[in-house]
Design brief:
483 residues, alpha/beta, seven-stranded mixed β-sheet, four-stranded antiparallel β-sheet, 11 strands, globular
C-alpha cells in the first residue's frame, strides 16, 4: 500500500468485486439469518480492538471481520421477515445508486457545486409527484428523514405567522404559539416544537375517533379555546398513515379548518404517501392538494435505501425565507437563475440522494412499483383474515394499507395479565429469529403490529410469522393454565 494517497485502485477493484458478490449473496440468502440480532449490549465493541491500527490493513481482511463481528450484530431490516415498525427495504437498483453517490461524493448545496445533483433532484421529485397524484406547482426537496422534513415544514409555518419575527428575534416576549396534531401523530411533530422553541406546552394533541383518525370538530374546538386563552394557533399536522395503525386523518375536513383559521397545514404521509402510486389507493392523499407542505418517505415503502425523505411545498418562498442564509463565500453568478437547494432546509451539506430514487423508479417503473405495493396490501389483508378467523386472536384497528394491529387473547381467568401475555408472545416470536414484530398501545392496551413493506417478502414469510404466533400462543396458554 502506498505511504500517501488512496489505496491502490487495482486492489480496490478486486475487493469491490468481492464486496458486490457478498452483497448479492446477502440479499439472496439473508432469510437464513435471525432477523433480530441476538447479541447483548457491548458484545460488538468487545469483539473489536480498543485502539485504531497504526499500520495499514489490507482491504481483503475487511469482509472476514464483517462476517465475524458485524453480521451477528445486525438486526436485518432488509430481511423478508422483518415486520416491525415500517418495514423498509433497500432494493438492488437503490444500492447501486448509493454506490455511485459515494463514488461521486458531491455536496449538492449549490447548483454550481454539482448541477446534475440539483437538476436530477428536481426532476425525479417531479416524477414522484406525478406518480402519487399531487398537483403541479409544488417544489420538492430531499431531506434525510421525515423528522427533518416535518421540522422544516413547521419552521416555515412559524415564519408565516403574521407579525412574528421569530427568525430575527426568537420567540422570547412574542406570541405564545400553539400547533396541533392527532394523539396518534408521530413523535417528530412534538420534537419539532421542542427544537423550534415552541415547547411541549405549545403542542396540543387532538383526540381521535373510533378508528384512530383525528377528530376535525375537536380540532376546531381546541383552536377556539386556545385563541380565547391567549395562544396564537399557527399549524396543524394531519397524518396519512399513522405510525401505530396507518389510519388516515380526514384531511379535507382538517383543511377546511386550517383555511378558515389561517393555519399552515402540513401532511405527514411519510409511510402512506407511497401507496398513492397505486391509483386505487390514492384516497390516502385526498385533500393533500390543499396542504402547505407534505412529506413522503421513499425509503419507507418505495424500496429506496434509507435515508431519503421528500418535503413538498406549495409555498417555497416561505420555506426559503425561513432558512436561506448565504455567506459571501457561497454566493455564485448563477444564484438568480438556478436554485440552491441548501436554502430549503437546515443542512448546508447535501448528499446526492436523488440518484438512488432515480434508479429505483427506472428499474421498476410506475406500474412495477404499484404492483409491489398492491401485493403488500394483499398480504396484509390475508394475514388479517387469518387473525380474524382464529379465536385465539382479535383485531385492534382497521388495516387500510399494509399494517395489521392485533392481540392475542389470554387464557381464561388471566384477562388482567393480557398486556404482559402479548409482550411475552412478541418477545418469544422475535427470539426465534424467524420474524420480527413490534408493538404499540391502542386505547391503553398493548397491540402487536405486523408491517409488510419489504420488496422480498412473499406469502410464505407472512404465513410463517402467523404460524410462529400460533405456536407461541399455544405454548404460553398451556403454561398459564392451572395444573
Amino acid at each position: 500500500m502506498p505511504a500517501t494517497g488512496d489505496v491502490d485502485l487495482e486492489a480496490f477493484r478486486a475487493e469491490a468485486h468481492r464486496f458486490v458478490d457478498w452483497i448479492t449473496r446477502y440479499l439472496a440468502e439473508n432469510e437464513r439469518l435471525p432477523v433480530l440480532s441476538r447479541l447483548r449490549p457491548g458484545e460488538v465493541r468487545a469483539a473489536l480492538p480498543r485502539v485504531p491500527p497504526t499500520q495499514p490493513e489490507p482491504l481483503s481482511s475487511f469482509l472476514a471481520d464483517v462476517e465475524r463481528v458485524i453480521v451477528p450484530g445486525i438486526t436485518h431490516w432488509n430481511h423478508p421477515s422483518f415486520f416491525a415498525y415500517f418495514s423498509i427495504s433497500a432494493s438492488a437498483p437503490g444500492i447501486l445508486g448509493e454506490m455511485l453517490s459515494s463514488a461521486f461524493n458531491v455536496n449538492a448545496m449549490l447548483w454550481k457545486t454539482s448541477p446534475a445533483a440539483t437538476e436530477l433532484e428536481l426532476l425525479v421529485l417531479d416524477w414522484l409527484r406525478q406518480m402519487i397524484g399531487l398537483p403541479g406547482g409544488l417544489l420538492g426537496v430531499i431531506q434525510d428523514t421525515a423528522s427533518s422534513s416535518t421540522l422544516v415544514a413547521l419552521a416555515a409555518a412559524r415564519e408565516a405567522v403574521p407579525g412574528l419575527e421569530a427568525r430575527r428575534r426568537g420567540l422570547v416576549g412574542q406570541a405564545r404559539l400553539r400547533m396541533y396534531a392527532s394523539e396518534h401523530a408521530h413523535s417528530s411533530v412534538e420534537k419539532a416544537g421542542i427544537v423550534l422553541g415552541i415547547g411541549q406546552d405549545g403542542f396540543r394533541a387532538i383526540p381521535a375517533d373510533d378508528v384512530f383518525r383525528m377528530d376535525a370538530a375537536a380540532l376546531a374546538r381546541a383552536i377556539a379555546e386556545d385563541r380565547a386563552a391567549g395562544f396564537t394557533p399557527f399549524a396543524v399536522t394531519a397524518t396519512a398513515g399513522t405510525t401505530s395503525t396507518t389510519s388516515v386523518d380526514p384531511i379535507p375536513a382538517i383543511a377546511d379548518v386550517c383555511e378558515r383559521e389561517g393555519l399552515w397545514l402540513h401532511v405527514d404521509a411519510a409511510y402512506g404517501g407511497a401507496a398513492a402510486v397505486a391509483p386505487e389507493l390514492r384516497f390516502v392523499l385526498d385533500g393533500a392538494d390543499r396542504a402547505d407542505s407534505i412529506v413522503v418517505n421513499p425509503h419507507k415503502w418505495l424500496f429506496v435505501p434509507v435515508d431519503l425523505s421528500v418535503l413538498y411545498t406549495r409555498r417555497p418562498d416561505v420555506v426559503k425565507r425561513a432558512f436561506s442564509l448565504v455567506p459571501e463565500y457561497l454566493r455564485t453568478a448563477e444564484d438568480e437563475t438556478a436554485p440552491n437547494l441548501m436554502d430549503y432546509g437546515v443542512s448546508l451539506g447535501r448528499r446526492f440522494r436523488a440518484l438512488k430514487l432515480w434508479m429505483v423508479i427506472r428499474a421498476f417503473g410506475t406500474e412495477g412499483i404499484a404492483a409491489r405495493i398492491r401485493e403488500h396490501v394483499r398480504l396484509a389483508q390475508l394475514f388479517r383474515a387469518w387473525i380474524e378467523a382464529d379465536p385465539r386472536f382479535e383485531l385492534t384497528a382497521p388495516s387500510p394499507l399494509s399494517v395489521v394491529c392485533f392481540r392475542a387473547l389470554p387464557p381464561r381467568g388471566k384477562e388482567a395479565e393480557a398486556d404482559r401475555f402479548n409482550e411475552k408472545i412478541m418477545e418469544a416470536v422475535n427470539a426465534t429469529g424467524g420474524a420480527y414484530l413490534s408493538h404499540t398501545k391502542l386505547r391503553g392496551r398493548i397491540s402487536l403490529r405486523l408491517a409488510i413493506g419489504n420488496i422480498r417478502t412473499e406469502e410464505r414469510h407472512v404465513r410463517h410469522a402467523f404460524e410462529l404466533l400460533g405456536d407461541v400462543v399455544g405454548r404460553l396458554s398451556d403454561e398459564g393454565r392451572p395444573a
